[in-house]
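Hey team,

Filing this mostly as a record. A colleague (T.K.) asked me to run one chain through the structure pipeline before their review meeting, and I want the input and output archived in the tracker in case anyone asks later how it was produced. No errors, nothing strange. Just documentation.

Input sequence:
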Amino acid sequence: MATPQLNQVVISKQALNQQDLARNVPYISIKKAGQQPLLRQPRRTNPVIWFGAILCLIFSLLLIFFGIATLIIVLVMKPRTPMFDTPTASLNLIYFDSPENFNGDLTFLANFSNPSRKLDVRFEYVEIELYFSDSLIATQALQPFVQRQGKARLVSIHMVSSLVHLPPNLSLELQKEVQRNRVTYEVRGTFRVKFNLGLIHYSYWLHGRCQLELSSPPIGVLLARSCRTKRR
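Output structure:
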């Protein structure tokens, strides 16, 4: 019977099978049963941020609501632009104290009409200016008023020019027009109008222009006119 050598190691078949199984099984990390994973506590949102966000949301919803409401009301009511006109005028005086100091007197009827059939319009700001060749010679302001739907209002305007300085070329041109018995003035009106659409107020600026041709004073009458009203 052969005796095993001292340098030989006897490994059982069961041990070899356990080693092969360990090589094939992936590494699995096993934590202690009492150890819990470390989780970061969520940070609480500042109440001020929540309050600001809610306010922004409410404001946005209100803007959308009023925008849609305004569009619907405008489409249903169909507000039309008010008109400015000067149907009659009388040139009473043109007088020069000196070659460049002008005095004048003009009276005319201003016609403010509201063509809208369903809405009243309020003239909140009314300023009337009188020009000769782009040179301001008189001005007047009117009190605010309300113009009813589909109605017109006639207002007598008395424009007085006292010692108004005119450049030499304009002074000479005005004197020539008086001699030709045909004086040209321009009436300019600046208005701010507002429509009340229930809880919604709709306002904008208007500019009226009327070019007047009149005979010479003291009984100067309106010979021709051209008026237009533009919205700004």
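Quick notes for T.K.: The longest helix spans residues 47-77. The first strand starts at residue 83 and ends at 85.
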